[in-house]
Write a structure and sequence with these properties.
Order of helices and strands: HHHHHHHHHHHHH
Number of domains: 2
Shape: elongated
Largest sheet: none
Distance between the termini: 29 Å
Helix content: 55-70%
CATH architecture of the largest domain: Orthogonal Bundle
Radius of gyration: 19 Å
Number of helices: 13
Length: 208
Amino acid sequence: MSKASTHLASVCPRMKALIRRIGPPRLEMDTHSPYEALVRAVAHQQLHGTAARTITARLVALYQDTGGFPTPHQMLATEDTVLRGCGFSASKVAALRDIAAKALDGVVPSRAAARRLGDDALIERLTSIRGVGRWTVEMLLMHTLGRPDIFPVDDFGVREGYRILHGLDAQPKPKALAVLGAVYAPYRSAAAWYCWRAVDEAKAAKAQ
């Protein structure tokens, strides 16, 4: 087992049983810059994955002659009507512009700069951006920057997975889950992944 799964199995018998069935954690990782990851996250907000990918593809197509994904300068230079034509709402266009502006200001760090910042510092900085909430930053920390100790207690799947895993009648509230999940440190990202897998397992069992 990995260090993460070994630790989680040692502190939680119910997690141990799930790990035996599922195997080691396999968190999906991307190679995007924090700026690009935030833009893509905004595209996905409140949309089905397929629709969000379509909108993002339209955005990237606008800049295919200059390398693909728009730079912050290009984003700010693009007319609102063009971005709206890709499928972004007015509020999302405003968020994209703020992400681009904050990237140029250095609030949105490069990958290299992000390595020098702790999780809490990044959450504080990035949630100051329009349209970017704590959950969005936590997903960036987990899937873009590979931070190992993130437990997104506002995530429905994490709360539901914890409920299923521990046989609870109701999902724990975020504040309560933050306390309960402290036992999983310093591998709370892997614990979140296993909570998601607990939901998948329950859905598969129900389908059968």
